[in-house]
Amino acid sequence: MSEQESGKQDIPAAPEAEATETQTDVEPAAPLSAEELNTRLVQAEDKIAQQQDQLLRSQAETENLKRRHTQALEKAHKFGTEKIVSDLLGVWDSLELGLQAAQDEQADLAKLREGTELTLKMLTDAMQKQGVEQHDPQGDPFDPELHQAMSMQPRNDVAPDTVIQVVQKGYSLNGRLVRPAMVMVSQAMPESAPAE
Hints:
By secondary structure, the chain is of the alpha+beta class. It contains 5 helices and 6 strands. Among the domains are: 38-73; 84-101 and 109-129, no CATH class; 131-189, Roll (Nucleotide Exchange Factor Grpe, Chain A, domain 2), CATH 2.30.22. Helix content is 55%, strand content 17%. The strands form 2 sheets. Strands 1-4-5 form a 3-stranded antiparallel beta sheet. A 3-stranded mixed beta sheet has the order 2-6-3, with no helix packed on it. The model has no long low-confidence stretch (mean pLDDT 86).
């Protein structure tokens, strides 16, 4: 054997040649029989039916959730104030009794005053249970976030921008301002013109 012949034997075959050899080695899949095709078709149809059933169930579940949430929201809007109404019913009853007592010509003024004070305490307690806080800023520095100035009065007995009179108290609900206090505020006395 010559060197040329032995050299030819050592050179590997080209990749293209290998690919054609591999392709020819793979035999095509045998065609499925009609019975096998029919079996696969039935299985696919069963799987589709199951998935459609799951989809319909999921959609129904979603619709039920939406309906339940809508009903819960409607109930919350409709009956959300039930607790405060329940707390205020005692105040209402007390006011009606006080009015009836005041209409009696021989009403005792001291008892009416005492009943009114008790009714006001009931109202204060009911509001505090609901998170309502009353603000009486008498003597406090004026705060435009919490107070609404009705007028300014020159005063030299208090510091400027001090609440000197509360016309109407302010209220907040759970820390959020519901109504600012309406107040009168002090201002510095004007300086008198120097005498000539």
